[in-house]
Structure formats: structure tokens, C-alpha cells
Amino acid sequence: MQLTAHFQCASGCGESYPLNQVIYRCEVCDGLLEVQHDIQQLKKKDAKSWIDLFDARYMRTNFPYGSGVWGKKELVCPNVDDENVVSMFEGGTNLFWAERFGRQIGLDDLWIKQCGNSHTGSFKDLGMTVLVSMVKQMLFEGKPIKAVICASTGDTSAALSAYAAAAGIPSVILLPRDKVSTTQLIQPIANGALTLALKTDFDGCMSIIQRLAKTEGFYLANSMNSLRIEGQKTISFELVQQFDWNVPDWVIIPGGNLGNVTALGLGFLMMKDLGLVDKLPRIVCAQSARANPLYRSFKTNFEEFDSLKAETTLASAIQIGNPVSVWKAIKILKKFDGIVEQATESELTEAVAQADQTGLFNCPHTGVALAALMKLAQSGQIQRRDRVIVISTASGLKFPDFKIGYHEKTLEGVESQYANSPVALDPDYDDIRRTIDQLIN
Length: 441
Known about the structure:
By secondary structure, the protein is of the alpha/beta class. It has a domain of 203 residues: Rossmann fold (3-Layer(aba) Sandwich), CATH 3.40.50. A six-stranded mixed sheet has the order 4-5-13-10-11-12, sandwiched between helices. The protein has a four-stranded parallel sheet with strand order 8-7-6-9, sandwiched between helices.
């Protein structure tokens, strides 16, 4: 089966462009682009055959098809030759049955998709493997690309720098100075990326990176490049595959630049078009109350949308007031009977800490999703027996200052109800034994 994909204007003007063209917006109407596949050609293989193929490849060692992304290569990016795929065995992350935490908040069937259990510690690996592979393909074809560039609040820069380093392609990163964790900052530095720390926020970095992207030789790796979305949509494929191709009732995902919401929806829509699933879940986008332009729009039934100046939030990766993919995300949320919920700083931190005490180790962005989940469960919109999947976007190991600050009770405006500081003692057995007896019931 000979398969190809192409860019098409997402605004509906009908313009299309080849995937190996350096382009991010429609040349006619300036709308964002999306990757379009030949669905009729894909339908020549029946649903069972696709499922059997994907199950046979899943987490095996046949490069590149053991990857959770490239195992669905035909539905993601068939234009890349196998020898130009840059893969680190991304995907294949576990679904954590949050039995204890679910029971605490009144849910019987709660699962956390642990996307942080990936090579660079976040779900951004899923999109970056596709984008960097396409860049390697373009370089093989003679395209004049000298560096791949991105603006980032941490995770995107880590993924880009790692995959670019693996491919031997230079990368340039723009970060907001003093607004990312040390753990996130060191990742692109360690991978050899040219890392520029700017005295601005993410939106300021994004404004500059879009100007740089207009310069010949620079290739943009932010999510306005829909090649990223193609990789990220495999989250939908994978979580359904992990449930033997059954669709959950709800999927909850944090939202900042909103490419993740778009990707999640596109994955489910594609599976439904091909007959791999017969229904769609409801999608919840969770935003920080300090960076909540989509939540405000949702409150008007999406009749209005206004960007805003995002305030400082512990969920730094979604501290975005002018999301690039907003109209794509709104389109998805309307199709999925979607909800947008928000979480305050106190709500997100307490949600993280409560879940951590049941065996998780969440990032603050996942905390936003967990807090939104708790609100929807308490209001009865999510029912006890509903199957719910929360997308955990990054490893909590990337945010040690956030964790330490919570347990030392130094986070402003947070009570730290679940604080658990170490107890300092001398090495005296009797004293140690008395303390254990006092504190362990």
C-alpha cells in the first residue's frame, strides 16, 4: 500500500502543501496547517487488520516499529523513510491504575497515562520524533536547513535538543529566563543545544521564534508545526490499544498552547474514521486559573476568545496567555462535547500531594488536570463508574523545587495539607523507636 500525507489549511480554504515544504501557515489565508492522510487509501485495509498489525508491532524490537509512535507509522508520517526515522523508543508509557486515589475522590475506574515515563521525561517526545525525523528526511532530500528552533517553557526544549542531538542536527532554544526549573534548563544544555535565556515570558519567546522561523535555514519545532501534532495524537491510539481497543468515557489533559488537546482529538477521530473504535470520549482541558484564556472562552460557549497576559503559575509549562492552537482546540472540544475547567495554585498543589501519597509522583501540570478531575467528580459531571484517563504530561522528577517547597511549606498561598517533612534525630535507637511508635499508627 503506497501511502503519503500532506499539509492542508485547517481554516478550510482548501490549500495544500507537501510535508517536505518549510511552511507553518497557509500562504493564502494565513491559517494554521494540519496533516491530512489519504483515509480512503487507508480504509483499503480493514479495521481488524490494522489492529492486528499494531498489536504485533507494539513494544517489539523491530526498528522503528516498536516505538509507540512509529508502530502506527502509516497513520502518522508515511513520508519518512525508515532509515531517516529518529526514534528513542518513545511511547509505550504505562497506564497507572489510580485505585486508591480514585477511591478517595469517588471514582472506581481512574487511570493515569504516565507520559513522563519517556526518554526526556514528557509527552513532547511523541511529537518531536516525528518532526526531527521529517527534518532528517528533508536534509536527505537536499533541503537547506541549518538548525531546528523552538520557544519553550522546558519540556519542548528537552525533547527537541535530545532528538536533534541524536540526529546530528543543530538546535536553538529560546527559554524565558528564571521561569523554568533547573532540571528542565539543564536538559538542552547537556544535549548541546544553543540555549538562549530571554528576560520575557513564553509568549514573548514565541513571538521572537516566529520571526526567526521566517529566516531561511531555520525550521520551527513548536506545536504550530502540525508535524508535532501527528506524533502527539498517538497518545489516543496507545491508551485505547492498552484497553484492548475500548474507548474510555473521559480523557482529561492539561492545556497551555493547546496543541495537546488538538492532537488528542485528532487521534480519536482518525481511529473512528478507520473503524478502529465506534465511539468518542468526552475531553476535558484543564487550565491554570492564572493562565486561563480557553476557560474564559468556554464560559461564553466559545463565542468569544481573548488572549491575556498570563500570570506566574507553578504550572509553568502551561503559563500561556496567547495559545497558538486555540481555534484547532476549540473545534476539537466542540466535536467531543468538551469541558474546560481551571485550577488555582492551591488546588493544583494539593491535588498533586494527595495523589503522590497514593504512589504517584506528579508534575504541577498534571496537578491542574487532577484538580479539574476532582471538581468534576464532586459536581457529579463525572460519575463513579465512568472510566477516566488523566494524561500526566511530564515526570515529577523535573520539578524538585516545587516538591520541596510544598513539603517545606514555602509555597505562597498553599497550606500544604499533606506536607511530610523529614524528622531530624540523633542516632539513638530508643529515641528512634519512640518516634516511630508515635508517628506510625
